[in-house]
Amino acid sequence: MATRCRSFRRLRVDERLELTSERVKRYARQIVLREVGRGGQEQLMAGCVAIAGNNDAAAVARTYLAASGVGTIVVAGAPRDVREALAAVNPDVAVFEIDAIPSGPEVAVAIDASFAAEWARTALDKCVRTGPWLHLGGAATGGHLRLERGEFVRCATCSAEASRGAGSPSLAMALGAAAATLASKIILGVGHIPFGRVCQFDRFGIPTRDDNGPGA
Ligand SMILES: [Zn+2]
Questions:
Q1: What confidence tens digit (pLDDT) does each residue in 104-113 have?
Q2: Whole-prediction pTM
């Protein structure tokens, strides 16, 4: 269950969350999807995702979430110009540093795109203790994406290997895009959401297989 920090009322009544005709046009390709529709788009606009990481995979995840209209993105470890970068993608997205969340949004999912850095876990813990968590891991041979509910258990491979981040740009793109898509699906509550699974990608970002997570 998502952790509710404090009230999110101030942002909920914000005019950013109205599905105006301009926004219907902006999100048209998404609204036509049976799984999304107008109601789903409003859910995305009211949704909040926290992302930790300062790398290509984190940037891709933030960009995809902003483009799909997720209304609030909480960042940790992001570059200084993250607000401007996301405003260029979608001016409606509110971006907050994790240490400066004004009234405590209800974070739907936390994405650890730091490749298992301890600072990211500490930062995300402030907002989300019990998940859902989305974790990206990487090594020279490829990467993985893991989705968990409840307390986050570190991967055996991630704790054994030094965190190397996503190697190739195509792997970073694949991991970031997959993380953003799963986060949107969690907000919408649609489709297959592989909790407790580890999705493996090769070094070029091609999905190779699914394994049971460490809690299985
Ligand atoms: Zn891992």
A1: 568 899 999 9
A2: 0.86
